[in-house]
Amino acid sequence: MAFSAQSFVPVLVFLAVNRLAGLRWAVVAATVWSLKVLIDRRRSGIPLGRFIPALTAAVLLRGAIGAITGSETVYFGLGIATKYLGAAVLLGSVVIKRPLATLAAPYVLDMPARLAENPRFRSTMAIITAISGVYYALSATFDIWLFRRSSVEGFVVVRFLANWPLGVVAIVAILAVAQRGMAGIPEVAPLATMIEQRFGESSVTSTHVDESTEPNDSTKYPQEP
User: Fold this and answer.
1) Burial class, 194, CB count within 10 angstroms (exposed 0-12 / middle 13-18 / buried 19+)
2) What is the pLDDT of residues 82-135, one digit of tens each?
């Protein structure tokens, strides 16, 4: 949800190719770049990597449908529908008292197993899940409003720029809730420490795997003919 050069590249690719070759090729180009980003994140050892196959399948399916139909309504509509579906799943998990943030937390926090059963921790995760659900619902609703009033290129640019501040607000709210919730649980490390330790372990593991599979110096880099 945060703004970065990497997140803006698919937008630039889509706009450029759409202008030069049309919507179908723009969809193909944006899909290929999105897959590249997912693969790069997987190789870097970012937590939540086990969800990469599902994300990859979703990106490929949406891209294939968009390219085949050549319809901006279908292509962007799938993205909007996905946001609403995500919001429904997140908010539904809160209603049945099994917030999804509880399942995701171990991939972001270096937390003891017993923490998952703590009532304060579970209530904190429920609030975080609800915030995420509301974010996706609001984002999808704004997308519909904007799509009806914009060209394809205008929709892509304005949606990206508008979703950035909304995403920042959601992230700040989630961090504030998490910080306040964790602070009230005895014998638990601060939130920042758990995040740092979790990501640090992931980086160490990724580095170790890379080193163990590296060729020797003579074959490490391809040689010029």
Assistant:
1) buried
2) 999 999 999 999 999 999 999 888 888 888 888 888 899 999 999 999 999 999
Burial of 176 (0-12, 13-18, 19+ CB in 10 A): exposed
Written as six digits, the tokens of 66 are 């968009």
Question: Which residue in 135, 114, 146 sits closest to 2, CA to CA?
Answer: 135
For 46, the enclosing helix (H) or strand (E) is none
H or E element in which residue 214 lies: none
Tokens for 90, please give them: 């997140």
- CA 99, CA 126: separation in Å to the nearest integer? 5
Per the listing, tokens 């490929």 go with 60
Helix (H) or strand (E) holding 22: none
Rounded Cα distance between 122 and 184, Å, is: 12
Gap between the Cα atoms of 40 and 209, Å rounded: 15
Please give the Cα distance from 168 to 217 (Å, whole number): 44
Q: What's the rounded Cα separation, in Å, for the pair 165 and 2? A: 8
